[in-house]
Amino acid sequence: MVSSTGDALLVSPAPMMWDSTAAAGTEPSATSSGDSLIEVPVEAESIQRHTTVLTLTPEAEELTGADVTYPVFIDPSIGPSRLNYLVVRSNASSYYNNSAETLRVGYCGWSGCTPYYSARAYFSFNIATLKTWEGANPVIAKATLNLNQVHNGSAASSNVQVHQASAFNSSTAWPGPLGSLLETGGRAGVGGLQFTSANLANYVSASAKSGVINFGLRAPNESDKYGWKRFDNNPSLTVQYIFPAGTPTGLTLGNALACTGRTYARTKQPTFSATGREFNSNGPVPIDVQFQILRATSDTQVGALGTIRTQRGVNVSWTTGYTLADGDYRIRARTVTALTDGTSSTSPWTTPVPFTVDTTVPAIPDMKSFTHPIGRESVTADPVTVVGDHTGGTFTLSVPSDSRIAGYAYAFNSTTVPSTTGHTCLSAGQVTDATRGIIKASNGTATLTLPPGVTGTSTLTVKAIDEAGNSSAVTVPYTFTRSATETHYQEMETRGLTLPGDTAWTINSQPMLSGGSQLFAPNPTIGNRYSARFTVPTTGTWALQPQMVKANSYGKVQFEVDGQPVGITDDFTGVVDPIEVNLYVSSGVYNSPEHLPVPLDLTAGEHTLTLISSGQGVAGGGASFTLDPLRLIRQP
After folding, report:
1. Per-residue pLDDT band at 392 (split at 50, 70, 90)
2. Which domain of life is it from (predicted)?
3. Within this chain, do residues 37 and 156 fall inside the same structural domain, yes or no?
């Protein structure tokens, strides 16, 4: 039998037959031939593509002759292909592949040996199946050389040596190509003799690349006739081997989301896939692909190994049978061959692949706008209506203290925000239409521009999406009114003044504030004055709308423009009743515009706005206030 590449895999020597005629020192049997070996003619006929019939036809006289002793044995053996055999003799000719001859070893100082001689036997095996395959060499677990001793020169046990040997042919003469000693062993009488040393296994391993292995037999003392032996010419070599397992390829996390340098699993029981590898040149053998989850920063195993039985080249999947807590992990895989004879080989682990389990839903996002002041620290079911907007503006979206936020889905004038598949990172903004879309966040915050098509009284609804694709609940729709009234916005944190008699402002910096900071008057004394400058673009009638924080520690404020109180003038007395804004609220923190309902005739250019602390917001409470930004709204 040959392989697809033409290498011999199994070889049958010429079939032999023998009868039960006893000879000196021998007792023929089904497994031990006598001296009367006769070759049996054989014919081969191919009847199908993969079927060949062998027909053995012994000569009739060899079955019925007067000198035939029954039973008669016919041995059409087939096995690991012994290629050639040779017996070399010191004082006689050699014989090569002579099927009628046994393997002779030692000193034949007995009658029948004329002249006396020493003999050595050599034989070879085809071990092409052990050749390197796809760059991998086989691992030899055990090798057994099997001999059948048919004659022993001594009644007692005597030894024979098994050696390495070089190549030989029909021209090889005494002493032959004997190499290093591998093992010594022996027995008395006749029967099987096995050699199983580590040296033997190592020799098989070293010879694997060539596809052929040669052995030599010699007696320990080639001058001692009691060491004379003969063996059947059909030795066999049994090799227990395995080609090494290969490190798996294609280790991946199923349903993964890669974002900002991380790979996210959006389930606490993720699924992993890999393709196992092994290098058995005789075809696939069973393998186990093993998956191991590790802690993020150590080789500490989490849970049990996952094991999937398969064969090489097949991509297999494993889902954890246990729940992983949210956090950072690593996954790696290896291949373990799994033969029924217990032989196994384990590959190195793959390089661990980091992944993050994140199933935590983000909090409802905050929305803040200084051009459309809809932001609240705590969103309630009561909408806040803002009038007098201009035609532009932005909204700042964030989830406080959550750096995982990748973006926000939004919708103007609809409570249905766009959805994401969760399989792609929000690497860019995605606009569904003019009023709906998804905007990418930077460091968890996004700035959304009010689209031109949103006019009149409108709403904005938003949800947050984190890097793992988890989505928050949507916000309560927030209502605002957009008109075409000319409005101008001025950041005030850089416009503070300290006029004679004034108290200096403190700058309060927070990321969510307009421009990142605001003017702040912390716990002023009643009557303290704080001033700032503002610019009127064109001469006309304007209303002022300062943006100011409301909280339970804030107080009352009155206003002056260019040193004149802002208020309602009594038509009869001419006395101005100042407008006073109370910034106290019992709970929550709000950043809202305070409309001063008094039109002011102002010339183009710079003017001064002064804020005067006029009392505590509630008895025993605080009196703080802020400013930023300031709106100027043109009046008819």
Report:
1. low
2. Bacteria
3. yes
Domain that holds residue 425: 366-484
The three-state (H, E, C) secondary structure of 49-99, written as one string: CCEEEEEECCCCHHHHCCCCCCCCEEECCCEECEEEEEEEECCCCCEECCC
Q: Tokens for 557?
A: 């404020």
d(CA 297, CA 509) in angstroms, rounded, equals 37
CATH of the domain at 622: 2.60.120.260
One domain, residues 497 and 567: yes
d(CA 277, CA 283): 12
CA angle 21, 25, 29 (to 5 degrees): 45
pTM (2 decimals)?
Answer: 0.56
pLDDT in tens, 59-115: 877 777 777 877 777 765 444 556 899 999 998 889 999 989 999 999 999 988 889
Distance, CA of 50 to CA of 65 (rounded, Å) = 38
How far from 22 is each of 27, 32, 518, CA to CA, in Å? 6, 11, 118
- Give the list of residues 6+ apart from residue 603 with CB closer than 8 angstroms, or none: 536, 539
Q: With cut-offs at 50, 70 and 90, classify the pLDDT of residue 326.
A: very high
Tabulate helix, strand, coil % of the chain (nearest 5): 5, 50, 50
Q: Which residues in 110-177 belong to E strands, given as ranges?
A: 117-126, 139-152, 158-165
User: Is 321 within the bounds of a domain?
Assistant: yes
User: Which single residue is written with the structure tokens 């305070």?
Assistant: 594
